[in-house]
Structures are given as structure tokens and as C-alpha cells.
Amino acid sequence: MLLWIEVIIFLILLGLTIYGFIQPIRLRYKLITAAQKEDRFDNLPKRIKDAVFSFFFLTCSVKKERVFTGFVHIFLLYGSLTFDTVSVNHILEGFNPNWNFYGHGIIRQIHSAVADGLGIMVLLAVLYFSIRRWVVKVKSYTYPSFESFWIYTLLATVTITFFAYEGAVISLTPEHAYSAFIGQALAQWMGPVTSTTVKVWWWIHIINVFGFVYYVPRSKYLHMFFGPINIAFKNYKSTGIIKPLVIDFETSEKFGAVDLKDFTWKDLLDSYACMECGRCNDYCPANQTGKPLSPKDIILNLKRHMLENKASVLAGNGGTAENVEPLKPLMDGTYTGDEIWTCTTCGACMNVCPVKNEHIPKIIGVRQSETLMESRFPAELGNFFRNMETNMNPWGFGAHTKGDWTEGMDIKVMAENSDVDMLYWVGCAGSFDERNKSVTSAMIKILKAANVNFGVLGVEENCCGDQARRLGNEYMFQMLAQENIETFKRYNVKKILVTCPHGFNTLKNEYAEFAVQAGIEDFNIEVVHHSEFIQQLLKDGRLKLDNQLDGSVTFHDPCYLGRHNSIFEQPREVITGTGSQLKEMPNNHDHSFCCGAGGGLMWTEETIGTRVNHTRTDHALAAGAETISTSCPFCMTMMSDGVKDKGKDEDVQVKDISELVADCIN
Question: Please, which contacts does 280-284 make with residues 24 or more away whose CB atoms are closer than 8 Å?
């Protein structure tokens, strides 16, 4: 009679556990699918492969930022997977005590040893992560974390009770010892036991297993399932691309991300995939210089807001059902202005995220609603937007003066002679900023020395719109893009050379997408950055250097050239091609620390925490080079200001790579 009572109790607990596991996953699925649609289903074989590899090989965790921690995650994963098979077997024992997946032969011998070994690994992993969280107190973790406490506790108790049950079984029936070395040791320690003892340990273990299964989908550890799914739907395009607003600006009443329903399903999926590891915070220049921006909280606050307002989300249209409140705006308690307006859009957070979360689109979406609907942005941006509206450039110089720099330089202007092989896009900085005009002069010198047939637009060259777009003014961006694309088509431009990585990213990646959206046909222009172009000129022998430099140079990777567009080695090859000794600074290549000017912040005042360019200047000075080089006008400005502020402007030069090359040409 007792056996049947146990079976009934077991079935009730099993049913409740299955329901408890499925119900929160079902809720989260409904919340995610209530968001805006987005096509992430191209190249499905590759997406599936990436998801499988990330799950079974933990390629998402074993990254150079935290290699050892990544390998500990592997032990935890495979230990848990092994226990999953053992736990399923133990659950089936509730129906048939003699059931065993692995039989009684060699497979059982191997599995028993592996299960014990990985069980030890799980306990060591729990100990390691507990020490990191509560002894070392890693800054980027979330505190307090009751979820971590409960999951570590459950992982430990599931493992320990498994060992105890295994030891009791071996003590009662020694022929079931096989190669379970931990079970055998515990059996000797336990001494003789009864079948009741075995049953008690089985029940204790099963209850712990059911507790673990019930708790996981209610905690951040749901990332075990959603993480690989999120990786399957990652963005394969440049991370520097901002998705265009496909709306009619004349008739639409809503722009950007005002509330939850304005995000896509991928945006919401990110929140459940988040591991809360804090890598994004560790590499965020705003966070690391004392700003209130936490890329991790951008994701987690979205999840919190979604769960708190689940009734409104599921009611349809942001809450139109009876007794359901409308969705609150995201800027009403979910995000703050200091978070949204201190992001440099450098992409460091997205680069290091193990599950490929996308922070920048969310921030830009909120900026769009703040700028276009509320006119709520940092006060300094008022001048920026006025300058753009009246003169098509952020400096505010008259648009009719943009070609003044060409006077006396014997350069083809497209309006007068469009018979050229490429258009040199000078950009606003190269046209108006006094320091960056010397970069323009250096490029002209290089192009002429290599006999490149090029032309410029002069007064017809508007701003590319990068800064306006990243500050949320999509209307201004689209207006500029439309006019520039029409100019390109008028002169039948096929190739564009750009010195600014922001302009390079915009012209190369974003204009093509905008052209499709705007119905502009046959828009196919090759866009190259000057670091690529100079490197190729040197490699092909088209550019001969008359002399070599003998100093040391450290290179600062611009975010929109390196991290967003994967151009790292070309500028370094240009530097070494001048004879300079290259000295790398800390945080280089894809871990380059932002100069602080990206995302439109070139035009705002930095009043919170340490200045980002000061921190990056410290990195550059630590390299011990005589010259700091970069390949971006914004980085040039920020690094020059940083060196001057540090009182090192007489000891250390700041130069664009083109200026180094020009110095080698007589």
C-alpha cells in the first residue's frame, strides 16, 4: 500500500514540476512574440550551427576576456548534462526501481566513473563561482543576488544527494558499484544500510532535482536555453548599422522606442538570454569612467519592465483591455536620461557579450523617441541640430564655404570635372576643423604621389548624417542621405574614399540599406577607408616613400573602424610601412577603449565621472611611444585634447596615419 501512495505522490510532484517548468517559458514566449516583427531567419543552417556550437562547446563563454571562468562554465555544463541523464534515470526509477539507461555492462562502467568525476567538477565550479561572487565580489556582478544563492545551493544539493543516494545503493547492493569511485567511498563511510535508507535518499535527491527544474525558468539561469537561441538569431551585419525608421515622417505620430511594444522580438529575447555576467560593464567606457550607464541594466531593466507589465503587453495595443493599464513609457522609471545620453555607441558591450545581446539598437531607439517626439536631449545638442538644419554641418560654418579648403590645391571638383576613378569624401571635420584640415592635406599629397585620379564634391558635399542618426534625429539623417545619394547618382560615383570611420560606416553600410528603403535603384558604390587604401597603395607599389621614420608609434583603434567594421591590421601595416616602431597600448584591437566622441557625444559636455578621453590618453601614454596615431578625426580631437590636458603635448605628438605617410614623401 505504501508503494502506491509513493507513486501517487511522485506523479503529483512530477506533474507540478513539468507544469512549473513550462508555464514561465510559455509566458516569456508570449511576451516576446507580442513585440514588433523582425526577419532574422536568413541563412538558417549557419544560425543552427552557431547555436549548437555555442551550447555544446560554450564558445560564447570561453572568450579571451575570461578564459578560466569560461572553462569552469564548461565543467558546469557537462556536469549538469551528465546529471540530467542520471536524474532522468532516477525519475524513471519511480516507476520501475530496476530501470537503468546504461544496462550493466561496459557502458555502465564508464558512465558511473564519468558521472562521479563530473559531479566533483560541478561542486568545484559552484565553489569557484561562490568565491568570485561573495568573497572576491566581482564588480560587474549583480548584488544582492538571491537567484545565484538558490541556484548554487540547488546545484550543490542535487550533486551531494546524488552521491549520497549512489553510496546508499552501493552499500545495500555492492554489485552496483561499477566504477563509481565517490559512491564506493561513501558506501564504506555509511556502512550497512537498509532499503528504507536507500528510498529516503532517493526521495531527497528527487525533490532536489524537481526543485532545480522548477526554479531555473524563473531565474536568470533561463539563459541556458535562451542563450543559444539568441546566438542563432544574432546579427551577421556590421554592428555599426542603425536600423532605419520605415515611417512617413509627415503623418506618423510615434517615432523610435516609446514603450515595450516598439521593440522587436529580438530586443526582448535579449533580456532572457542575458547571463548577467557583467562583461558588457567591464568594457563599457561610460561605465568604467563613472557614468550611470550600465549596458547590463539596459537589458535587465527591460526584462523587469516586461514582467511587471505583462498584462498590458499581452492585452494588445499596449493595454486596451478592460482593467488593464496602458504601457508606461520607457523613460518613466525604466531608463534615465543619464543612461541614454552617455552611450558612445562604441559597441564594446556587444563585442564581448557571450550571448550576442544588442544594446545599441535599444539605446538609439529611445534616443529617437526622445529627440523626435519630446525634443528632450542634452542642452548642447540644440546648437548641433540648428547647425545641421541651417548649414548641413555640425560646426555651423556656412554650407557655401565647405569647398574653401580646395583653393590653390589643383584638385578636381566634380561639378567641373567628374571624369575621375574615385570620389574623395573629405567629411565635415576634414573641411572645417583646423587640426583635421592637415589630414586632408596629407591625403591629397598621398593621392597625388600615387597618381590617383580623384575628385571632390566641394560645396556639394553635405554631412553624411552619422552624428544626427546616433543622436536620434532619424529625420535629419534620411534627409541628408537622400540628397547625398542623389548627388552620387548624378555624377555616376562608383567608388568613395573616406578618412572618417563614422562616414565610412555610414556610407558603406547604412546608405545601401536606406537606398533600398527609399526605393533608389542601382545603388552600388564601393566605399574604402583611407587606412585600407593607403595600405593597398603601398602593397601594390603605387606609392613610393622617399624616406623612413625612426620613432615609436602607438595606434588607437577607432571604434567605427575596428570593432564595428573589423579593420585592424591595415592601419598598423601602414604605420610599420613608414619605418616606425609600433607599440601597442592596453585595450587594443577589438578591445580598444573608446575616445569618448562616438554616438554624437563629440558635441556634448562630459560632466559625470572621469572624462573618457583622459582614460584613453592614459592608456596611450602608458605605451611609451613618441607618437599617438589614429585614423579618425574625432579620435584625433579627443586624443589631442587628452594629451594637452595631461600636460604632455610637448613630449607626445598625435597624428593621423596619413600624416605619418605624408612625412615620408618629399
Answer: 280/348, 280/349, 280/350, 280/352, 280/353, 280/357, 280/359, 281/139, 281/140, 281/349, 282/65, 282/139, 282/140, 282/352, 283/65, 283/348, 283/349, 283/351, 283/352, 283/591, 284/348, 284/349
The shares of helix, strand and coil residues in the chain, as percent rounded to the nearest 5, are 55, 5, 40
Q: With contact defined as beta carbons under 8 Å apart, do 282 and 332 qualify? A: no
* Domain boundaries for CATH 1.10.1060 within the chain: 260-372
pLDDT in tens, 191-241: 898 989 988 998 999 899 899 999 999 988 888 889 889 999 999 999 999
> Is the alpha carbon torsion for 103, 105, 108, 111 positive or negative?
negative
Q: What is the value of pTM for the model shown?
A: 0.90
Mean confidence (pLDDT) of the chain = 90
| Start and end residues for every CATH 1.20.950 domain found in the chain | 2-232
Residue 316 has pLDDT above 90, yes or no: no
Nearest to 316 by CA among 601, 107, 662, 33: 33
d(CA 181, CA 72): 22
Q: Does residue 321 surpass a pLDDT of 60?
A: no
Is residue 644 predicted with pLDDT exceeding 80?
yes
Q: Which helix (H) or strand (E) holds 630?
A: strand 627-630
117 neighbors 83 (Cβ within 8 angstroms): no
- Kindly report the number of other CB atoms within 10 A of residue 306's CB atom: 23
Place of cell 536606406: 514
Q: How far is CA 315 from CA 22, 305, 321, in A?
A: 21, 15, 6
Q: How confident is the model at residue 96 (pLDDT cuts 50, 70, 90)?
A: low
Pairing of strands 581-582, 552-555: parallel
pLDDT band of 105, cuts 50, 70, 90:
confident
Q: Estimate to the nearest angstrom the gap between the alpha carbon of 404 and the chain centroid.
A: 41
Looking at residue 330, its pLDDT comes to: 94
Domain 545-662 annotated CATH 3.30.559.30: no
Lowest-pLDDT range of 2-11, 257-266, 365-374, 485-494: 2-11
pLDDT of residue 10: 85
pLDDT at 61: 57
What class, spelled out in words, does domain 2-232 have in CATH? mainly alpha
Whole-angstrom Cα distance, residue 126 to residue 369?
A: 43
Other C-beta atoms closer than 10 Å to the C-beta of 38 total: 14
Locate CATH 3.40.50.10700 in the chain.
545-662
- What single DSSP character describes residue 64? T
Q: 260-372: which CATH architecture?
A: Orthogonal Bundle (1.10)
Residues in the chain: 666
